[in-house]
Amino acid sequence: MESRNQTSASEFILLGLSEKPAQETLLFSLFLCTYVVTVVGNLLIILAVSTDPQLHTPMYFFLANLSLVDFCLATDTVPKMLVNIQTRSKSISYPCCLIQMYFFHFFGIMDSVLIAVMAYDRFVAICHPLHYTTIMSPGLCGLLAGGPWVFSCFISFTHVLLMARLVFCGNNELPHYFCDLTPLLRLSCTDTTVNRVFVLVVAAMVIATPFICILASYARIIMAVMKVPSADGRKKAFSTCSSHLSVVALFYGTTIGVYLCPSSVRTAVKEKASAVMYTAVTPMLNPFIYSLRNRDLKRALRKLVNRKIASSS
Q1: Rama region for 180: left / alpha / beta (φ>0; ψ in -120 to 50; rest)
Q2: Strand 173-174's sheet: what is its strand order?
Q3: How far is CA 29 from CA 22, 35, 48, 284, in A?
Q4: What average pLDDT does the segment 145-157 reach?
């Protein structure tokens, strides 16, 4: 009888990053610029890789996939926040909240796994250069890129199913700017033990495990590079990894703080700050990080832009 009298919330109120109108105007401008740069930068990377035959290699194939995922991850969260600020309406329906949560975790898991796959690609290229084309065959590249899509779909759908069984009968104000898992669990008035255990299991699989694999790959890479006799050779080998290491630091530095740190040291402010980093800042910076130090990519981007200018004139 008690469970029948409980009525689950039909919508949530996204409190956003700030409740002050002056700050919201500034946030709107900042996030609009960030999103535009994210869209343009990542789409340019995808177009450059797909149209330039010299970039049809495993490294750039995975980079194009990462750019697509970053674009989708930012699109899942930022536009809704911009609309909420512009319309002064902070509500989101329960079904839309679950959909947003699904795609956020789907593309977030994809991001994590793809970054680990790119580390493996660098490991093979540096530690086994003579067998690189044999090991990184089109079939394996397709499996390494396509497998995470299936895996992410299964994990994200399970998150949604477990969330759908919960009841939200009290406060429906979510101290966040999108529907994230942990803030939603705090609002539930039913037992969330299963959900929290699953969160820890998934975090171990999609954050801790890829991060450990990345560390192991770079440990082997460092050992191999240190055996290179010339200083120029060592510098060239490390330069091919520097961009990827920057992305690893940005992404895992924030996600580990949100999903693997004890709840006693997490606050709503810290969670929102970390979420901004991996949903808005990191997808915006990734195209710059990968293109600034990559001559082939800069050449392809220059050729792409020149071609567009020539066709429009």
Answers
A1: beta
A2: 91-93, 11-14, 173-174
A3: 11, 10, 28, 15
A4: 94
pTM: 0.87
- Give the rounded distance of the alpha carbon of 70 from its chain centre: 6
- For residue 42, give the H/E element and its range: helix 21-51
For residues 231 and 44, what is the distance between their CA atoms, to the nearest angstrom? 34
Task: Return the closest-CA partner of residue 56 out of 174, 236, 64, 192.
Answer: 64
pLDDT at 186: 87
Q: In whole angstroms, what is the distance from residue 150 CA to residue 136 CA?
A: 20
**What is the percent of the chain with per-residue pLDDT over 70, rounded to a whole number?**
91
Phi then psi for residue 93, to 5 deg, are: -70, 155
Mean pLDDT (the chain) is: 85
Round to whole Å and give the CA distance between 143 and 41.
26
State yes or no: pLDDT of 205 exceeds 60: yes
pLDDT in tens, 90-112: 889 999 999 999 999 999 999 99
**Best CA proximity match to 163, nearest among 5, 3, 9:** 9
Contact 110, 148 (CB under 8 A): yes
User: pLDDT tier at 266 (50, 70, 90 boundaries)?
Assistant: low
**What angle (nearest 5°) sits at the alpha carbon of residue 286, between those of residues 284 and 290?**
140
How many C-beta atoms lie closer than 10 Å to residue 7's C-beta? 9
CA 172 to chain centre: 27
For the stretch 54-84, pLDDT in tens is 889 999 999 999 999 999 999 999 999 999 8
Secondary structure letter of residue 92 according to DSSP: E
Mean pLDDT of 32-50: 92
Q: Are the C-beta atoms of 253 and 247 separated by less than 8 Å?
A: no
Cβ(255)–Cβ(228) below 8 Å: no
Instruction: Report helix angle 21-51 to 58-87, nearest 10.
Output: 150
